[in-house]
Amino acid sequence: MRQARSVQRSRRRAVLGSVLITAAVVLTGCGDDEQPVRVGGPGVEASVGDMELRNIRLDNPPPGGYEVGSAALLGVAMVNTGDEEDQLVGVSGPDFTAVLVDENPATSNPAVTIPADQTVFTDGPEGPVLVLAGIDETLLSSEALPVTFTFERAGEVTVDAPVSAPLRLTLDRFLREQAAD
Q1: Which domain of life is it from (predicted)?
Q2: 100-129 pLDDT, tens per residue?
């Protein structure tokens, strides 16, 4: 019994150490001129035609959440599993007024090309940056905003994009769960 508890404590410490080391590496790697690496649970997934959308989420909100009229980074990995390139031609929703692509207004056509058999990340250093502007309600972590993605070939799909939780909340929740075991 005593040995089992010792093994269990050692495992908890190893997992906690791994989480803390990962967090430190991620936070250390973020410079002013680099895109920050997002840490946290996976976002929503969806598919339409040959397009798979993975880890759909809004970036961590500022303290107090996203206020009415603010803007949020929309993160998504768009995976084209088809044999032909496709293009993201629209991003819309009832609770925001515009979409900015790489800081340029593009409310009707973001024109993001996804090559055949490739993935495009909207929040990585190589991919486009999608920002939902003019959010018309206050949003807190873990709340969601409906977003419709429209592709030239694949079609249209609507998802509820959750607002990511800041890293600290994710670590706090992990520590509480470990203490409860």
Answers
A1: Bacteria
A2: 888 676 555 688 999 999 999 997 778 899
pLDDT over 90 (residue 29):
no
pLDDT one-digit tens code per residue, 132-159: 999 999 999 889 999 999 999 999 999 9
One domain for residues 27 and 50: no
Amino acid at 152: E
Contacts of 118 (CB under 8 A, 6+ apart): 79, 80
Which amino acid is residue 29, in one-letter code? G
How far is residue 30's CA from residue 179's CA, in Å, rounded to a whole number?
A: 30
CA neighbor of 128 nearest in space, from 164, 156, 99, 154: 99
Helix (H/G/I), strand (E/B), else coil: 101? strand
Q: Are residues 121 and 138 in the same domain?
A: yes
Task: Summarize the confidence of residues 38-53 as an average pLDDT.
Answer: 76
The CATH number of whichever domain residue 78 belongs to comes to: 2.60.40.1890
Helix, strand, coil percentages, rounded to 5, for the chain: 25, 35, 40
Shortest CA distance to 130 belongs to which of 19, 35, 2, 13? 35
| Better-predicted residue by pLDDT, 26 or 165 | 165
Q: How many domains does the structure of the chain reveal?
A: 2
On whether residue 58 sits in a domain, the answer given is yes
Domain residues for the domain of 70 are: 44-164
